[in-house]
Design a protein that fits this description.
The chain has about 190 residues and is α+β, with helices and mostly antiparallel strands. About 30% of the residues lie in helices and about 35% in strands. Strand 3 and strand 4 form a beta hairpin.
Length: about 190
C-alpha cells in the first residue's frame, strides 16, 4: 500500500488522495445540500450553509498547514476520477496511539453502495499501518442508522452514547461513539 504525501490509496472501486483546491467547489455544493447536511450532522446549522469564500479559505490556508502526524483530510474519488466525498482523521494522540475519523459521501446517487465503507477501510488501514495507531474512533447521531450499520460492517463497535447530545429534526438524539482496535482489525 502506498502512503499519503502526494500518493493515493486505492481499492477496487475508490481512491483516497490528498485534497486540492480544485475540490472546493464540490465541498461547497455538498455542504449546502440539505440532505447531505442532514445525514452528516442531523442538520446542524454549524455545518451548513457555507459560503464559497469560507471553503476556499480553508483549502488555501488550513489544508496546506496540516501535519499528517496529527490530522489529514482526503478526497474520495471513484477510480474514473469522479470526486464523490471526503474522509478525514484528527485528534491523533501519539501517547494513546488513537485518532478520530470521519467520512462523507456527498454524491447522493452513490449512497448505499458501499463506497463510503471502502474509503473508510482504506483510511483505517493507512492509520494502523503508517501511523501505528492502536485505536480509531468515530461518532454519529443515533438517527443515522444507515451509518451505524455501515460502521459496524467495517468493524466498529458501539462503545457508548451521549444521551440527547445532538439536536436534530425537532428533537434530541444520542451521539453514538464507536471504536475499532488494531486487534479487532487484524
Amino acid at each position: 500500500m502506498e502512503s499519503f504525501g502526494g500518493d493515493s490509496l486505492s481499492s477496487d472501486r475508490v481512491r483516497l488522495r490528498p485534497h486540492t483546491a480544485s475540490d472546493a467547489a464540490d465541498h461547497v455544493r455538498w455542504r449546502n445540500d440539505a440532505q447531505v447536511a442532514f445525514w452528516a450532522t442531523a442538520g446542524d446549522v454549524r455545518f451548513w450553509p457555507v459560503a464559497a469564500a469560507t471553503v476556499d479559505r480553508w483549502f488555501n490556508d488550513k489544508l496546506p498547514a496540516m501535519d499528517p502526524t496529527t490530522d489529514g483530510v482526503y478526497a474520495v474519488d471513484l477510480l474514473d476520477g469522479r470526486h464523490i466525498g471526503m474522509a478525514d482523521y484528527r485528534d491523533v494522540d501519539s501517547i494513546a496511539r488513537s485518532a478520530t475519523v470521519g467520512i462523507t459521501i456527498g454524491e447522493k446517487d452513490l449512497w448505499g453502495q458501499g463506497f463510503g465503507s471502502e474509503a473508510l477501510l482504506l483510511l483505517i488501514r493507512y492509520l494502523f499501518d503508517n501511523l501505528n495507531l492502536h485505536r480509531v474512533q468515530l461518532d454519529t447521531w443515533s438517527g443515522n442508522e444507515r451509518a451505524i450499520r455501515s460502521f459496524a460492517r467495517v468493524g466498529f463497535r458501539e462503545e457508548g452514547r451521549l444521551r440527547d447530545a445532538v439536536w436534530g429534526p425537532g428533537r434530541y438524539f444520542d451521539s453514538v461513539v464507536m471504536g475499532l482496535l488494531r486487534s479487532d482489525w487484524a
